[in-house]
From TrEMBL:
Keywords: Hydrogen ion transport, Ion transport, Membrane, Transport, Vacuole. The gene is FGENESH: predicted gene_8.237. SUPFAM superfamilies: AtpF-like. One of its GO terms (molecular function) is proton-transporting ATPase activity, rotational mechanism. GO terms for cellular component: fungal-type vacuole membrane; proton-transporting V-type ATPase, V1 domain. The lineage of its organism: Eukaryota, Fungi, Dikarya, Basidiomycota, Pucciniomycotina. This is V-type proton ATPase subunit F. It comes from Rhodotorula toruloides (Yeast). V-ATPase is a heteromultimeric enzyme composed of a peripheral catalytic V1 complex (components A to H) attached to an integral membrane V0 proton pore complex (components: a, c, c', c'', d, e, f and VOA1). V-ATPase is a heteromultimeric enzyme made up of two complexes: the ATP-hydrolytic V1 complex and the proton translocation V0 complex.
């Protein structure tokens, strides 16, 4: 299977984040629920177990229909060791800010990896 064929079916954006982030992205049209009830998003609140977040991350990064995985940076901090082990190009992993949690470039593992590869 060629790379073009392998990545052609990746058409969804998955999201792991707080309620405000998920709501905004669902209103923007990124939400998808397949015929079996499988969602491409996870709403995280203070009661969400870390194991649930890790399971969603594993599921989203293994799915062949997801092109991009957006995760609130404060949620990514909860599973940072798992995030740092992630090395795949697809789905692309992007850490994003939340309403109450500004983006901190020093915590972004993807940005750190890019800087490392560029020799900075």
């Amino acid at each position: 299977m060629s790379n073009a064929t392998q990545y052609r079916d990746r058409s969804l954006i998955a999201t792991i984040g707080d309620e405000d982030t998920i709501t905004g992205l669902l209103l923007a049209g990124t939400g998808h629920i397949d015929g079996r009830g499988k969602k491409n998003f996870l709403v995280v609140d203070s009661k969400t177990p870390v194991s649930t977040i890790e399971s969603a991350f594993a599921e989203f990064t293994e799915r062949s229909d997801i092109a991009i995985l957006l995760i609130n940076q404060h949620v990514a901090e909860m599973i940072r060791p798992t995030i740092e082990k992630y090395q795949q190009a697809f789905p692309a992993l992007l850490e994003i800010p939340a309403k109450d949690h500004p983006y901190d470039p020093s915590k972004d593992s993807v940005l750190k990896a890019v800087k490392k590869h560029l020799g900075e």
